[in-house]
Amino acid sequence: MNIKGKFAIAALCSGLSVGAVAEPQTGDMLLTLAGSGASNKDFEANVFNLSFDYGKFMSPESVVGVRQSVGIADTGDDNNWNAATRIFYDYHFGTTQWRPFVGANIGGVYGDGIEETGFAGPEAGVKYFVKDDTFVQLQAEYQFFFDSSDEAQDNFDDGSFVYSLGMGITF
């Protein structure tokens, strides 16, 4: 490896340090914004998704909140939208810049061309604090859909994964 490559790796590693940062306190609020999109090669069919979280830290490790997601699909011939609203609970580990978390959520989906139904599932992710009150978040959720509690158990294996990458603040 040449000197430029070694310098680039050293710079990257120093920027992703694991030093301690200020920990959120009980009562602090959380706001996260994430987005994604996809298009075909000719940009004739496009999908855009936007999601935000608003929550409150019940302790330095645990946060309870609401998450709203909205998606718009433009297939060239048709446009439709869908949305999901859910409450969530996340438990964070550690006190360094890297804070992994696990949690759960429950809510509902609605919109054009989809069956309005409930869903629930586990979630996990990691926050990387770039400042004491600003972070980048990578998260994955597993959602299984149901109309009644009997269906929840039957449908667990037929769920879907939802991934997001976003930025957030605590205040």
What layout of secondary structure does this protein have?
Layout: H1 3-15, E1 29-39, E2 46-57, E3 62-74, E4 79-92, E5 98-111, E6 117-131, E7 134-146, H2 149-155, E8 160-170
Antiparallel strand pairs: 1-2, 1-8, 2-3, 3-4, 4-5, 5-6, 6-7, 7-8
Structure description:
With 171 residues, the chain is mostly beta strands. The protein has helices at 3-15, 149-155; strands at residues 29-39, 46-57, 62-74, 79-92, 98-111, 117-131, 134-146, 160-170. It has an 8-stranded antiparallel barrel with strand order 1-2-3-4-5-6-7-8. It is globular. The relative contact order is 0.17.
| Shape assignment | globular
Q: Residue share in helices?
A: 10-25%
- Which regions have little confidence, pLDDT < 50, spanning 5+ residues? none
Number of helices: 2
Distance between the termini: 43 Å
Describe the structure concisely for a colleague.
Helix content is 12%, strand content 60%.
